[in-house]
What we know:
By secondary structure, this protein is of the alpha/beta class. It has helices spanning about 45-50, 70-80, 90-105, 115-120, 140-150, and strands at about 10, 15-20, 30-35, 60-65, 85-90, 110-115, 130-135, 155-165, 180-185, 190-195. The chain is built from 5 helices and 10 strands; from the N terminus they run βββαβαβαβαβαβββ. Strand 5, helix 3 (about 90-105) and strand 6 (about 110-115) form a beta-alpha-beta unit. The longest helix is centred in the middle third of the chain and has 13 residues, at about 90-105. The protein is globular.
Amino acid sequence: MASPKKPVQKLHNGVNQLRIIGGEWRSRKLSFPDAPGLRPTPDRVRETLFNWLAPYVAGAKVLDPFAGSGALFLEALSRGAAMGQALDASHVAVSSLKEHLGTLRCTNGHVQTADALRYLETQTATAFDLVFLDPPFNQNLLPAVCTLLEERQWLAEDSWIYTESETAPSTLGLPGNWRLHREQKSGQVHYALWQRMAVSAG
């Protein structure tokens, strides 16, 4: 059965293409390799998400622990994010994304090969304003990643977190101080935007 994440334009064997929708690099087309589990967020969903996030992207510090094709990460940088950190376990995906950053002459985006859970558990935390969570499905990664983000202080006080999941947002068991702001479903994929509410001391 075809993946629910479409449309992706096939260029030729093993190569796909994504288009940046808005901002400095608007309409730029970039190719990315086929890799297991790579499901770029479709244009229509990205457009909706960045409409939701419009007031919050410029100047934001952005984290994308499951960067994949880099569609969300590059879109945020194109729209004025101050700094971006992307991770992916696939050397192929990371190499492709590094190439795109070079092509775009982007100096405030950083990408490295890393396991997201291990990275969030072991690295010194920086507080991010905007986090994209689009992990491989059917591995129960979202709850673990979200717990690490919250407990290890990777999130700014009022940060925004975007999730993609194969089950409804209400079933995910995410931190209690995250408020569900918006949600939509496209095919079999649930998209949600959460706002972190500060936890009062005491």
